[in-house]
Amino acid sequence: MNQKPLLLIIGNSNVGKSSITRLLMPNPRKFKGKIGKSPGSTLLIKKTTQNNLPYNIVDLPGFGYVSHSSRRRGEHIKKQMVVHIEKHYKEYFFGLVVINILRIEDEIEKYYIQNKKTIPLSFELIQFLREFEIPLLIIFNKIDKVSNLDKKKKINLFIESAKEYGLDLIHLNDHKSEKKSEIPYLEFSALKKINLGKLKSLIQKNIFNQS
Ligand SMILES: Nc1nc2c(ncn2[C@@H]2O[C@H](COP(=O)(O)OP(=O)(O)OP(=O)(O)O)[C@@H](O)[C@H]2O)c(=O)[nH]1
Ligand SMILES: [Mg+2]
Fold it and tell me: Which CATH class is domain 15-22+42-209?
């Protein structure tokens, strides 16, 4: 019945997925989703929609959801997410992978520096989504919480580590859409609405680029 294309917003709990969803609504006041409440609640795959929005939004937990819940539960949620993407990937015209900038060092250190055999979950997630050829934007959210210098340091660490896993990240401003191997990223603050305009116009562009 509802044929609108889907925008995917994916990332760990508490990174700001619902906050970003709300900002994309033509009428944020009517946004019914909860912000900052009950991480680890049951995964319900539900579309967020509004009349004047030309697409629907689905927000999903990423791979690293386990922090607030048990390991088994985390595995279950991850499996549900994978099944959902495998089934519905064709309906998605664009995906936002949301990363909490404050969590970058922790994640990279945990998986990369201590044990080079494992892969940071964010990179695993990005690789997984790329297999389905969903165009992606990496969003480093909550930049209002770090200094300019720290912001650069953290994003650089992410980019340099991603390279070792064959992921080529490039700032949205320098991104050329014909270079499909490069994944654009954007620093962002849902709180301060930093780069919201850029995000909105990129989403618009991707709706029209759909084949
Ligand atoms: N300082 C700051 N806080 C933010 C920003 N974006 C979101 N938050 C806060 O981070 C918390 C989590 O935001 P949500 O939007 O609920 O995060 P989520 O990813 O939807 O979380 P789950 O639904 O649990 O997966 C809330 O308290 C938000 O107000 C931001 O850009 N800056
Ligand atoms: Mg949420």
Answer: alpha beta
